[in-house]
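Page 37, continued from 36.
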């Protein structure tokens, strides 16, 4: 097959839609994603942050999984037994909301169908919709070991959750008690901190006077929640606040409730907020709860689970909280205790599912005592066993862990891991066990009822790095792949998930769960706003993939990321990445169409290489070293950018052009060498690009370059000292600098490519340029390259430029048609004379000067000066041309 026939046989444009799905199916069928214990290989493990089964792929998922896939593909090519463990999360609240909404459409409630039927519906829902996001991740090119896919409520993970709960309870680290929790009155459940979102809301600050019980003085507090004052059991001031020194230790009367409560001094109080005096409502504020514990204040809850005033609220009992607020404010005005009302803006916690306000309240729930568990987890990071990338996020981790509160793990839901607490119905004894007990240890009864609550989703996902590998069983996978190597996640769940995995990993396995935490930012829209449904600015990754391809989306995300920093999404970046794919395809097509024209050698370094070959091999060698280092440091943005620059500029724009002389006009040996280096460099560059653009690299590697096997299991390139040619790199840098300068000079003078001229170079180091003179001639449209000593007299009547290789000169007589250029410049001179005359006439007109705005007059003066400068430049060029015509040129 001749070159032209082969060229026509290869598609002229790259069509991602015809490539990506076919290649992905081929990878799956070949089992390239699979990983298993292998004593001959070192393991490398990543566990996927499990997306919710209610989830739809969004840009955050796309970024997170692109980073993970790039890392795992890199490590797989380096020869590791690379496992990317996939899975999904049952998402207790989110999924239950979906099922409840579904039943509401049928006119049913949870109570109508009962727990067993509800759970059956939930599992059916998971079967039907739970795998949707997995299929979407596959379209992104995610190379997970899908045969090992786990679900947080599958049998193995459930066993791990129950074992962990029992273990912590037996150690005294899980308890049931009354503490302040986040409560969603709408969803009817406790929430974790991660499930509370904060939004800025406008409200008021009500200033209320509490009179001293002995009738001598008063104290004014400021509150944003007057309805909770019904449960006040004290007033707190800062011990350093001189304003209230005489009030500390005395009793004041709680307005409307006529209850005497003490004034206490506590450093928690901010003297600059409000009046510097704070009402204490321990049942409805976590900070007040802590102050109450320190000072022995009573705890009185006044709100019900559905956000109404309870029996402790006196005459306001039964009122909705907001209605009670209005009534209380009205009554405070009537009693004279309302001092003032101030406009105020503050952050209000809302439920991440229903977006209604969350109520902090005291409730009997299950808690994990976190401080004993946090200590070794803090130590693991401080000693460097676990490293955060970037390191600055360690401060956030330490701040959270060193000030950690006990963790409320119970949820008033049906979908989730049910708490393994069993209550004897005969005597009330509670038994914590992995399975329901047969006999009550206290009374011998056999009638047990299990706790109704389920565990917080974060409890099960906290076990993810080891439960997915088989724990609590001591499986071969657990022994081989644990601890994992890196966790990739956004910074917004450091507290809620990362910290808990470290805690549980050390507690269950006596070993850290991962060595690195690679933190990335979030994707914002092109205006810098966070993507959200409310703003309507979300971008569907699947639509982007449909239009541009997964490779283009992946590359645009990888190239825009740097550890820990947010990034903006621009459609133009994806288009640019798609153009890059086309550039790769066209370059590869050019190489492929020449493959049968000469024998290609794999032993590159033993060929008769010329200066261009050594330059590109040396640049490749540097690229391999730098990209490998960047990948090891999780600097994907730097790595992908360097590969892009190398392929687009150095390989396509420069080296391919340099090779054309030998491919089309050289002898057989020169052609074979050029083609061998072209193929070798392309293959290595494709390998470096593969983690970011897996589909096109696979297509080119196998189908255009006819390599056996898949690029994803090919060896990652290694830097080779013998492939480093610094002198040739310096020389070729000079050649490219000269070429760019010549092209700029020609472009400034609108010189057509057909018009060629000599290039005169004055340099103190001629040898490298002599070796590369033929490349300058071809790339800079030169008839010849004349090299002179740098001390020689500069040529007259020549355009010049200073380059890294020396000073270049292009004789103007050869560069332009003197007669035509003279005619053009004379016309330009005449136009400028007219413009100068016009401007001068205006500025001599007294009426114009007096009536026109100062800015307009100043503008005319600026134009006149500009025209004069242009006129002088044109005259100078005409003088040069006149000299050339009279005396001849260099």
């Amino acid at each position: 097959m001749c070159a032209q026939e082969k060229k026509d046989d290869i598609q002229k444009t790259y069509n991602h839609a015809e490539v990506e799905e076919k290649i992905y199916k081929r990878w799956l069928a070949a089992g390239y994603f699979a990983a298993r214990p292998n004593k001959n290989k070192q393991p490398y493990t990543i566990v996927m942050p499990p997306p919710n089964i209610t989830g739809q792929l969004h840009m955050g998922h796309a970024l997170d999984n692109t980073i993970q896939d790039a890392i795992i593909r890199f490590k797989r090519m380096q020869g590791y037994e690379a496992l990317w463990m996939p899975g999904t999360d049952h998402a207790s609240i989110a999924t239950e909301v979906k099922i409840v909404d579904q039943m509401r459409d049928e006119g049913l409630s949870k109570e109508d169908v009962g727990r067993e039927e509800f759970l059956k519906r939930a599992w059916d829902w998971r079967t039907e919709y739970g795998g949707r996001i997995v299929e979407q991740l596959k379209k992104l090119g995610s190379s997970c070991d899908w045969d090992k896919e786990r679900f947080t409520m599958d049998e193995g993970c459930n066993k791990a959750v129950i074992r962990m709960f029992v273990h912590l309870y037996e150690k005294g680290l899980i308890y049931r008690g009354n503490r302040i929790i986040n409560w969603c009155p709408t969803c009817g459940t406790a929430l974790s901190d991660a499930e509370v979102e904060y939004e800025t809301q406008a409200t008021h600050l009500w200033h209320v006077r509490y009179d001293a019980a002995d009738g001598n003085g008063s104290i004014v507090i400021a509150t944003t929640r007057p309805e909770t004052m019904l449960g006040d059991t004290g007033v707190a001031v800062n011990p350093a606040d001189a304003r209230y020194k005489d009030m500390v230790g005395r009793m004041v009367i709680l307005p409307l409730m006529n209850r005497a409560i003490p004034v206490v001094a506590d450093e928690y109080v901010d003297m600059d907020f409000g009046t510097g005096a704070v009402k204490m409502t321990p049942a409805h504020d976590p900070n007040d709860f802590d102050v109450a514990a320190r000072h022995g204040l009573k705890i009185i809850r006044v709100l019900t689970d559905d956000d109404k005033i309870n029996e402790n609220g006196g005459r306001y009992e039964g009122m909705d909280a907001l209605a009670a607020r209005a009534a209380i404010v009205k009554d405070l005005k009537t009693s004279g205790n309302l001092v003032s009302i101030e406009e105020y803006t503050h952050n209000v916690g809302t439920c991440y599912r229903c977006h209604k306000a969350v109520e902090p309240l005291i409730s009997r729930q299950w808690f994990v005592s976190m401080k004993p568990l946090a200590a070794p987890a803090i130590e693991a990071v401080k000693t460097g066993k676990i490293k955060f990338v970037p390191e600055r996020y360690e401060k956030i981790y330490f701040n959270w862990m060193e000030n950690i509160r006990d963790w409320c793990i119970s949820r008033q839901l049906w979908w989730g891991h049910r708490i393994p607490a069993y209550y004897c119905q005969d005597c009330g004894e509670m038994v914590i066990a992995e399975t329901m007990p047969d006999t009550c240890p206290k009374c011998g009864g056999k009638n047990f009822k299990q706790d109704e609550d389920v565990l917080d989703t974060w409890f099960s996902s906290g076990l993810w790095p080891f439960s997915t590998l088989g724990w609590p069983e001591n499986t071969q996978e657990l022994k081989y792949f644990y601890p994992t190597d890196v966790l990739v996640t956004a910074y917004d769940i450091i507290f809620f998930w990362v910290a808990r995995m470290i805690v549980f990993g050390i507690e269950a396995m006596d070993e850290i769960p991962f060595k690195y935490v690679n933190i990335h930012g979030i994707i914002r829209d092109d205006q810098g706003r966070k993507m959200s449904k409310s703003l309507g600015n979300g971008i569907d990754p699947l639509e982007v993939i449909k239009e541009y391809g997964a490779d283009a989306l992946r590359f645009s995300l990888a190239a825009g990321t740097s550890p820990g920093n947010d990034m903006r999404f621009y459609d133009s970046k994806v288009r640019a990445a798609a153009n890059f794919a086309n550039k790769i395809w066209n370059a590869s097509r050019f190489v492929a169409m020449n493959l049968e024209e000469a024998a290609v050698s794999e032993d590159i370094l033993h060929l008769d290489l010329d200066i261009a070959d050594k330059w590109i091999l040396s640049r490749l060698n540097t690229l391999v070293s730098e990209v490998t280092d960047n990948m090891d440091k999780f600097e994907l943005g730097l790595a992908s950018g360097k590969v892009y620059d190398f392929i687009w500029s150095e390989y396509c724009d420069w080296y391919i052009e340099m090779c054309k002389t030998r491919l089309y006009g050289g002898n057989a040996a020169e052609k074979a060498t050029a083609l061998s280096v072209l193929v070798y460099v392309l293959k290595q560059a494709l390998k470096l690009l593969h983690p970011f653009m897996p589909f096109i690299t696979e297509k080119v590697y196998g189908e255009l370059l006819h390599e056996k096997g898949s690029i994803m299991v090919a060896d990652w390139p290694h830097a080779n000292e013998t492939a480093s040619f610094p002198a040739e790199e310096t020389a070729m840098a000079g050649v490219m600098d000269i070429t760019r300068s010549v092209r700029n000079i020609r472009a400034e003078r609108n010189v057509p490519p057909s018009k060629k001229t000599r290039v005169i170079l004055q340099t103190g180091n001629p040898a490298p340029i002599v070796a590369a003179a033929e490349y300058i001639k071809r790339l800079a449209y030169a008839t010849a390259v004349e090299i002179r000593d740098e001390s020689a007299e500069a040529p007259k009547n020549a355009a010049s430029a200073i380059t890294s290789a020396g000073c270049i000169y292009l004789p103007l007589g050869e560069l332009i048609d003197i007669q035509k250029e003279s005619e053009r410049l004379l016309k330009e001179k005449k136009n400028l004379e007219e413009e100068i005359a016009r401007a001068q006439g205006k500025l001599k007109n007294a009426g114009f000067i007096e009536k026109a705005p100062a800015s307009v007059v100043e503008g005319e003066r600026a134009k006149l000066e500009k025209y004069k400068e242009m006129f002088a430049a044109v005259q100078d060029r005409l003088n040069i041309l006149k000299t050339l015509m009279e005396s001849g040129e260099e």
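Confidence is low (pLDDT under 50) at residues 1-7. Flag for discussion at group meeting. The first strand starts at residue 43 and ends at 47.
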